[in-house]
Every structure is written in C-alpha cells, then in structure tokens.
C-alpha cells in the first residue's frame, strides 16, 4: 500500500516543532521517529503516550510504532572534595550549584556525604524523590535539582553504611534521571577512604574542586584529597579557601581567625587555579541553617559565589581544551 504520511501532519500539534524526525503511514501502520533529546524519562513517556493516542485517532491508522532517539547528552560531573570534615564543602557545593544555575547552566547536585548528608537542610527541602522505571527523579529546589543520601535514609542512618550498601545507594544517585542537567556537582564525603575511591571510579568526574580552610591541619588533609584525585586521573580544577577573613559586624574590623592566603599559595605551588576565597560569615552560616542558600539572594556573599562559579566555568573550559 502507498505511503501517504499527510494525515500524520496532525501530530505536529502534539509534539514540539521539529521533534518528529520522520513519519510514515503504510498499510494502516504509522511509524514515527521522535527526537527526545533533553527530555527526562517521564517527559519522554508522556510524549510517547500522547503521540500514540493522537495517532490512533487519525483515520486510517490502526497501529502505531514509535522509535525514540536522542542526541548524547553532554554532561559534566564535578566532584567537590575536602580532606577534612566541617570545612564548608557542602555549603560550597550548594551555593556553587545555585550560582552556576544563575549563570545559565542546568545544574544538579548529588549529596554523597554518607557521614552527614546535609543538602536537604542546606536547600530547605525535605521532599522525597519519586522513582520512575526504577530510576530516581531528582528534586527541584532554588533553580537546581538534587538527590541526597539523606532522602533515601533517615538522618544519621547513612553513617552506619559501609562498603556495598553505601556504594549501591550512591550508584542510584549517579544513575538517576538527570534529564537535561549539564553540570552535576558531587558533594563527596570528607576524607580519602574506600567510599570516595569507589564513588570517583563510578561517577568518573571531569574534574574536582577542593575546599580547605587556611589552617595548616585542613591544608594537610586537602593535599591528601588532591593526591587521591591525582591517582585516579581526575584533574583538580581549582582550590577554594573557606572561612578566611572575618569582618566584625560591630566594629567592622577584619581579622583572620584561621589565617589567610595559604590555600592560594598551595594552588600556585601545585599549579592549579585558585578559584577564590569565602569569608567566615555569620550570614552564610545562618542562611545555610535556614535552608536559604546565600547564593540565591543578593549581596556580597552571593557575589562571591557568582565569582567562584565564573572561575569554575573557565577552569572547565580550559581542562576540556
Ligand atoms: N564561610 C562560612 N562562614 C560561616 N560558616 C560557614 C562557612 N562555610 C561553612 N560554614 C558553616 O560551617 C559548618 C560546616 O559546613 P559544611 O557542612 O558545609 O562543611 P562540610 O565540609 O561539608 O562538613 P562535613 O564534611 O562534615 O559534611 C556549617 O554550619 C556551615 O553553615
């Protein structure tokens, strides 16, 4: 029977312009090739269902065959690590992600910190992710999407995980339906043990950001993290100095409780970019506790994260060149 696809033109009303790459009607069988690039699993299924039911409503169509195609989604994973806990790695991850989103990127965050998953608190969202076709759907907050071990288990429970259990749960986060996310930041657990190693091997990040306070102790541990990245061939995209100077809100005098400048010197010594310095700021601590990331607002803290995000994008471009 002749192929006369004209009646299928109707389907343009169902799919966004250009998504239907080819259409054919032969012997009552409608065959469509549909480009689903950039759509998450749910949107793909929804589009397929709508096209199928619309096609079956067209006179002369008795069967519908749909092939979905997608251009390879280019996605960059960046690990955020520190040698030591409590230096602000999670705070940096959240705010860097939001600053990247404000710079126009589609950003996801994986909270892989088994010792203290804190992204739900930092992002002020206790929403649990749904699963579709056995894949988790990241939760949206402050213009980014995120998944956290803290959403899969109760607070404090992940701490008891070791080995395969932790690795299995982390794999679910990495293999989730990240849709059109272009950059995914992974908030690593502090330290350089087996969990970090497995995670890096699974996620295969394009690079890593290492955060440290200017204290010697934090810096010594940061060097261990840098070594681990080096051993796994994960380029260090840059170092960030957190909790540097403190400006007294009363008298305005600036002091350096943990010292200042050592992280920048370390970056120069090992030949990696210094991405920037964040002050020790009561506003950062208070906003983080309240689930209102400073990067989502305005002011000097938000500007500092925006600057870090810009430098990270430059470092990513340089690493890819
Ligand atoms: N620049 C800053 N100024 C003030 N407080 C900060 C700053 N950075 C982080 N903090 C606070 O320090 C505490 C630890 O930060 P955070 O949880 O981000 O560290 P971490 O390195 O991820 O720790 P862990 O590895 O234990 O999860 C939090 O209370 C956070 O609000």
Automatic annotation (TrEMBL):
Q: Which residues does ATP bind? A: 83-90
Q: How does it assemble?
A: Homodimer.
Q: What does this protein do?
A: Binds and transfers iron-sulfur (Fe-S) clusters to target apoproteins. Can hydrolyze ATP.
Matching entries from SUPFAM superfamilies are given as: P-loop containing nucleoside triphosphate hydrolases
* One Pfam short name: ParA
Q: Can you cite a GO biological process for this protein?
A: iron-sulfur cluster assembly
Family to which the UniProt record says this protein belongs: Belongs to the Mrp/NBP35 ATP-binding proteins family.
Recite the UniProt keywords alphabetically.
ATP-binding, Hydrolase, Iron, Iron-sulfur, Metal-binding, Nucleotide-binding
Record keyword Iron-sulfur present: yes
Name of the protein in question: Iron-sulfur cluster carrier protein
- Superkingdom of the source species: Bacteria
